[in-house]
Write a structure and sequence with these properties.
five-stranded antiparallel sheet; Uridine Diphospho-n-acetylenolpyruvylglucosamine Reductase, domain 2; binds flavin-adenine dinucleotide; 3 domains; globular; about 300 residues; Uridine Diphospho-n-acetylenolpyruvylglucosamine Reductase, domain 1; five-stranded mixed sheet; 7 helices
């Protein structure tokens, strides 16, 4: 179905707890801060609304993408995939004394780390990472040593089974996640996350957060427009993706308004009104050079949405 027909269908559907925006500026939807337009952005505020919406979109075979904080997503500046964001009803956190914590998928990670600290739970390994709980769990974000899923007991989510959206609570097993991925069959949207963690002294957590932020500031461009590491670290190399790119002398290399960060070679920055194509093309050049020089195929860590290729 053409995008204009989908707009009409959505207008008619009149689902409660959905806000629908047409021709929406993507600048604030991704930390690349690219200017451009996405045809349809939908903000959902209840599971019932999400279920009805996903059922409609699946029926017509429409392409859609769940977006959290957009800190790991490059959106095409002419995007015809439907973007779905979880709204304020999914922005909550509940802390219990027995090690259990629950958080809504649209809760901001930074806020979660601060409240965890106040309640004596140490999530300092995530300090300085932007994004939402949903996006973080979907990509098992964290460091080389720890990922957020190590502390996830279960998730509440919507799955698509036989073209229909169904709500389920799933207990995570170690097989369900790994380096920068979560693997749950038929998963469409994470709505709520249940954590389990031991308590730690506040002073220790405070120092851990301070040290983490200090080391991140020293090594990563935290104040520029980027989406974190663009490529996953290759499993078949002793060198990280950043080290491979750096050894090719690519720090500072520009394509249009995009550049390889001078601080960390695995970060691509929007330095001067970059288009999404500038960033995408620069990523392809880097990927090609790494393949040519080291025979290593770098995989994107950043998710691409709305591109035709
Ligand atoms: C300066 C900077 C530093 C960073 N440092 C790190 C780091 O140290 N470690 C690290 O791992 N990452 C890092 N990142 C990347 C990024 O912040 C994390 O991956 C973050 O967890 C992404 O969350 P998000 O909500 O922004 O995800 P988005 O970019 O919005 O989405 C990422 C993926 O998650 C999916 N998704 C989002 N929400 C949901 C949901 N509710 N249900 C199902 N799927 C969903 C999207 O469809 C997409 O596939 C960094 C980014 C920046 C800009």
């Amino acid at each position: 179905m053409e995008i204009e027909e989908i707009k009409i269908l959505l207008k008619k559907s009149d689902i409660k707890n959905l806000e629908i925006f047409f021709n929406y500026n993507i600048r604030n939807l991704s930390t690349f801060r690219i200017n451009g337009i996405t045809s349809i952005l939908i903000v959902a505020n209840s599971d019932e609304a999400l279920i009805s919406l996903l059922n409609i979109l699946n029926d017509i075979n429409a392409r859609y993408y769940i977006i959290g904080g957009g800190s790991n997503t490059l959106i095409s500046d002419n995007c015809n995939d439907i973007l779905i964001k979880l709204g304020k009803n999914y922005d909550f956190q509940e802390f219990y004394d027995n090690g259990f914590i629950t958080a809504g998928a649209s809760c901001i990670l930074g806020k979660f780390i601060t409240h965890s600290y106040k309640n004596k739970y140490d999530f300092s390994f995530l300090a300085g990472i932007p994004g939402t709980i949903g996006g973080a769990v979907y990509g098992n974000c964290g460091t080389q040593l720890e990922g957020i899923c190590d502390y996830v007991e279960s998730i509440e989510c919507l799955k698509i089974i036989k073209n229909k959206a169904l709500k389920e609570k799933i207990k995570l097993k170690p097989l369900n996640y790994g380096y920068r991925f979560l693997k749950v069959e038929n998963l469409a949207v994470i709505t709520k996350v249940f954590f389990k963690k031991d308590k730690t002294e506040r002073e220790i957590i405070f120092n851990n957060i301070r040290e983490k932020i200090k080391s991140k500031k020293a090594t990563q461009p935290l104040n520029t427009f980027n989406c974190g590491c663009f490529f996953k670290n290759p499993l078949n190399s002793k060198k990280t993706a950043g080290e491979l790119i750096d050894s090719l002398g690519l720090k500072g290399f520009m394509y249009g308004g995009a550049a390889v960060s001078k601080k960390h070679a695995n970060f691509i920055e929007n330095i001067n009104n970059a288009t999404s194509e500038d960033i995408f093309n620069l990523a392809k050049i880097i990927k090609g050079l790494v393949r040519e020089n080291f025979n290593i195929n770098l995989d994107y860590e950043v998710k691409l949405v709305g591109f035709q290729t």
